[in-house]
Amino acid sequence: MQIEINAKRLLAELETLATISEAEPPAVTRVVYSDADRRARAWFTSLCEQAELSVRTDAIGNIFVRWTGSQPELPAIGTGSHIDAIPFAGSYDGTVGVLGGLEAIRSLKESGFRPQRSIELLLFTAEEPTRFGIGCFGSRLLSGALGSSADEDLRAGDGSTLAELRAGAGYTGPIAGVLLPQNYYAGFVELHIEQGPLLERERVPIGIVTNIAAPAGLRIAVEGEGGHAGAVLMPDRKDAFCAAAEIVLAVERSARGTGAIDTCGTVGTCQIHPGAVNSIPSLVQLQVDIRDTDEQRRDRVLREVKEACDEVAARRCVSVRVELVNADAPAESSPQLIDAIERSADELGLRSKKMVSRAYHDSLFMARIAPMAMIFIPCRGGVSHRLDEYASPDDIATGTRVLAHTLARLASE
Ligand code: GLV
Ligand code: MN
Ligand code: MN
Q: Do 115 and 247 belong together in one domain?
């Protein structure tokens, strides 16, 4: 079947979405439940309604956009991604999968295709961990990886709970209702930029994700003793930031120490109290991100970091509290879905490459309740989580075309 993607429409929508931001364009900041996030959701919903798709929203703001098939009683085929963006991000992470998913559905409709299974586009609430310190909380709740205690357990930096923040954004109702039944989707396919350099380097337009690396997060609080930057003598200090600096380097040392290229360790946030140039830091809070394709090796790094924290605490006479925020298992894609994507790419005369996703995605959790696979497209220099993130119009259109063909194939089985 001939499916024409309206690339002009899709690119214009990606450009519009990029302007809905808390940061000055071209930087994009869209933190979940912020004003920008809410405006972006309203705009997205109106696009879906214009396309005559039915829209429902759950109690935390996951948005489901359904094109009902001729056999609506069958489990649907799902696609989708996220539109929240970390501070000072670019405009393609997540958004290509949401607006590309919408374009794939519209193109299928316009080409006269009629699905047997319903096709559903999902906009996940908060794939990024910016607000609650944990990634993918929308898909965690959908898949049962998080339960209703999340309403009180998940807290933003200012102490407000998920319950308060979702209510403030207009999302109410029992959080237990967010969980999807096991047979809700017959398959889930997410389109995303690679966020790494391989496809561009090898000039391959389509990546097919075979597995997603296992992420983990720690919160570390280091408490020492504050005081006057001039009056407290160096031998008498219990500087929390100096201790934290050693912990930061221990994270790097442990991640590099596995000798595996697949292990990554990052300390991405650091808050210093009281935060005055002439005051010795008394409290430092760090957020640590550790990942690996190999879960056991990832867990060894977590243990080493914990041991380093104990050692630094004892030697520097400070207290170090380590909280494990998450330690998730990796996910494997479904061989049937990999095959469906590969056949769609072949049909379109496109080269494809099977690859690992080192970044996490909502698909990591969707894999718990449905067969899952992902389509990657190249991004310039492999750059992501930066405002100079870029995917070319051709690559976006190509990925969307492969998605449309894959959805058509899966919705007809
Ligand atoms: C997702 O944004 C990730 O950090 O992998
Ligand atoms: Mn991201
Ligand atoms: Mn993403």
A: no
C-alpha–C-alpha distance, residues 123 and 146, integer Å: 18
Query: Chain-centre distance of CA 413, in angstroms?
Result: 29
With the most atoms of ligand 1 within 8 angstroms of its CB, the residue from 30, 88, 195 to mutate is: 195
Considering every ligand atom, which ligand is closest to the CA of 135?
1
The pLDDT assigned to 177 comes to: 96
Q: Are residues 95 and 220 in the same domain?
A: no
In order of 65, 91, 353, 384, 385, the CA distances from 390 in angstroms are 27, 8, 20, 8, 11
Tell me the per-residue pLDDT of 149-171, one tens digit each, with 9 for 90 and over. Answer: 999 999 999 999 999 999 999 99
Closest CA to 97 of 123, 115, 119: 123
Cα 296 to averaged position of ligand 1 atoms, centre (Å): 20
Among candidate residues 303, 327, 351, the one where a domain is terminated:
327
Q: How far apart are CA 67 and CA 61, in angstroms?
A: 19
The per-residue pLDDT for 154 is 96
Cα pseudo-dihedral 92, 97, 98, 104, rounded to 10: 120
Cβ–Cβ < 8 Å for 124, 362: yes
Give yes or no: residues 204 and 347 share one domain. Answer: yes
Q: Which two tokens stand for residue 199?
A: 């496809």
23 and 140 assigned to the same domain:
yes
